[in-house]
Amino acid sequence: MAFALHCDIRIAAEAARFGSVFIKAGFSSMDMGTSYLLPKIVGAGVARELMLTGRIIDADEAYRIKLVHEVVAADELLTAATTMARSIVDNNAYGVWQTKIGLNAALDAPSLRHAKEIENRTQILSGFTNNPAEAAKAHQEKRSPIWDPL
């Protein structure tokens, strides 16, 4: 599960299983940031239950608790992941980069005000690129934008 927690978007095959299982092997469930990320993704109560019991969950439960964003047949996994990746890549690289920076920084923001300051900074920085003007022009001309390189 720890590797999956570090992914921006998680798509699981129907047969996937997830668990914080080191506790079953005589260790703690503290692994690769699980104690930090899992409660932020699924909530503190669910995270505590999974980490304290070492219970393994299936893909459907992982979807229900919001651990994964989508569950697909194993033979559709690569297509689903590629489709998702394409929908991200189609956006401007600078905007995606700034969004990832902002999302990661907001995880540690002590308040909404601090999170908004992070957002304001990323919007201002993005505004210094040609991308907003290109997006407007492309929309007006009914074509896909040609984004600035990163």
Structural features, described:
- It contains 8 helices and 4 strands.
- With 150 residues, it is mainly alpha-helical.
- The chain folds into 2 domains: 1-86, 2-enoyl-CoA Hydratase, Chain A, domain 1, CATH 3.90.226; 91-141.
- The strands form 2 sheets. Strands 1-4 form a two-stranded parallel ribbon.
- The protein is flat.
- Its EC number is 4.2.1.17.
- Keywords: Lyase.
- Belongs to the enoyl-CoA hydratase/isomerase family.
- This is Putative enoyl-CoA hydratase echA12.
Could you tell me how far the N terminus lies from the C terminus, measured between alpha carbons in angstroms?
32 Å
Topology pattern, helix = H, strand = E: HEEHHEHEHHHH
Number of domains: 2
What is the beta-strand fraction? 5-15%
**What is the top-level CATH class of the largest domain?**
Alpha Beta
Find the structural class using helix and strand composition: mainly alpha
Report helical residue fraction: 40-55%
| Number of discrete helical segments | 8
Number of strands: 4
Q: So, the CATH homologous superfamily of the largest domain? A: 2-enoyl-CoA Hydratase, Chain A, domain 1
CATH topology of the largest domain: 2-enoyl-CoA Hydratase, Chain A, domain 1
Enzyme class: lyase
GO molecular function, one term: enoyl-CoA hydratase activity
Family: Belongs to the enoyl-CoA hydratase/isomerase family.
InterPro entries: ClpP/crotonase-like_dom_sf (IPR029045), Enoyl-CoA_hydra/iso (IPR001753), Enoyl-CoA_hydra_C (IPR014748)
